[in-house]
Write a structure and sequence with these properties.
Number of strands: 14
Shape: globular
Structural class: alpha/beta
Helix content: 25-40%
Strand order of the largest sheet: 6-5-4-3-2-1-14
CATH superfamily: Ribonuclease Z/Hydroxyacylglutathione hydrolase-like
Order of helices and strands: EEEHEHHEHHHEEEEEHEHHHEHEE
Distance between the termini: 15 Å
CATH architecture: 4-Layer Sandwich
C-alpha cells in the first residue's frame, strides 16, 4: 500500500557509518500529494522505497541534507537502477554545495555499465547524465514543487552557530510546507537556534537523537588503546554536533511543534527494550506526542 498524501515515512532510522542490524541507513519519504520525494539517500534506500509501496522511478526529487556517507550511500544505486530500468523522466537532486561534484562522479562511473547494457545488439540504455539534474541549495533557498514549499537553514552538525555562513561544508535542516500540514527534518545537527526558528509552528518535527554515554561506551569498547585525549575530542564533537533526547525535547517545546519523531540511531541505541526510556526522556521536556522512529513507520 502506498503512503497517504502528505505523510512522512522513516525509510531508514539508523545513523553513522556502522551498520545497524535492525535499522537501515538514513533515508525518508515525504509524500507531496501523490508525488514521492526522497529525503537523504542512505544505503538501502531503493529497497526501502519498494517496501514502503513506492516505485523508485516514481521519485522525481531527492533532497540531501549533507554529504556524510550514511546519508548518500545509495545515490549510485539510485542512478544505476533508474538507468537499467530505462528511466525517461527527469530526476532532480537538491543538496548543499558539493552535491554536483558527487553526482557528476557517480554519473561518470555509470559509463561502463551503460556501455555494456544487457548485451542486446542495437539496444541503448538511457544515461543518467541525460535524466539527472542537480540543484545546489543553501540556507537562503526556497523551492516550490507544486503545492509543496521547501525551505532550509544551516545547522550545527559541522560547526558552531557562531561560524554559520562561512566558507566550507554545509549541513542543512529542511522544512516542508504542504497543504494543511508542515514538517521539518533536522538532518544531523547539534542544538541550534536557526533550526528552532525554522521549525516554529510545524505539525511534525523529525529529529536526530544520540545517546552520548552509550555511544562513547561503544567507542571505548571497540578502541581500547585509544588515548584519552582522542576520546575526549570525539565526545566534544558528538555532544556539540548531535542532539541528546533532552536537546530534542527542548527544541520541540520551544518551537511549538505538535509531534516529534526521533531517528538516526547508532547500533544498540533505541532497541525494542530501550525505546520507551528514550521517549520518556524526550517527553520530560516536551508536552506533545513523541515517537521513537522505526524503519517504514509513517507519521
Amino acid at each position: 500500500m502506498s503512503p497517504a498524501p502528505s505523510s512522512f515515512t522513516t525509510l531508514g532510522t539508523g545513523g553513522g557509518p556502522m551498520q545497524n542490524p535492525i535499522r537501515s541507513q538514513p533515508a525518508h519519504l515525504v509524500m507531496n500529494g501523490d508525488r514521492p520525494v526522497l529525503v537523504d539517500c542512505g544505503e538501502g534506500a531503493m529497497g526501502q522505497l519498494k517496501r514502503a509501496g513506492v516505485e523508485f522511478k516514481a521519485v522525481q526529487e531527492i533532497f540531501l541534507t549533507h554529504h556524510h556517507f550514511d546519508h548518500i550511500g545509495s545515490l549510485f544505486a539510485c542512478l544505476g537502477v533508474n538507468m537499467m530500468t530505462m528511466r525517461q523522466t527527469p530526476l532532480t537532486i537538491y543538496g548543499p554545495p558539493g552535491t554536483r561534484a558527487i553526482v557528476e562522479g557517480l554519473i561518470a562511473a555509470c559509463d561502463v555499465p551503460q556501455a555494456i547494457g544487457f548485451g542486446v545488439k542495437g539496444q541503448t540504455l538511457p544515461h543518467p547524465r541525460d535524466f539527472t539534474r542537480v540543484v545546489e541549495i543553501d540556507a537562503t533557498s526556497r523551492i516550490e514543487l507544486g503545492e509543496m514549499v521547501v525551505t532550509a537553514c544551516e545547522n550545527t552538525h559541522y560547526r558552531a552557530e557562531s561560524e554559520a555562513g562561512r566558507p566550507g561544508p554545509l549541513s542543512l535542516s529542511l522544512r516542508f510546507d504542504l497543504p494543511g500540514r508542515s514538517l521539518i527534518f533536522t538532518g544531523d545537527t547539534g542544538p541550534c537556534q536557526a533550526v528552532e526558528v525554522l521549525a516554529r509552528g510545524c505539525d511534525l518535527l523529525v529529529g536526530e537523537m544520540m545517546d552520548l554515554d552509550h555511544t562513547m561506551g561503544r567507542v571505548r569498547a571497540t578502541n581500547p588503546h585509544m588515548p584519552e585525549e582522542a576520546l575526549q575530542k570525539i565526545r566534544a564533537h558528538l555532544s556539540g554536533h548531535h542532539l541528546s533526547p533532552e536537546d530534542l525535547g527542548d527544541l520541540a517545546q520551544r518551537a511549538g511543534v505538535n509531534h516529534v519523531v526521533a531517528t538516526h540511531f547508532a547500533p544498540g541505541c533505541a532497541t525494542p527494550d530501550t525505546a520507551e526510556s528514550y521517549a520518556a526522556r524526550i517527553a520530560a521536556r516536551f508536552a506533545g506526542k513523541v515517537n521513537i522512529g522505526a524503519d517504514l513507520g509513517s507519521y
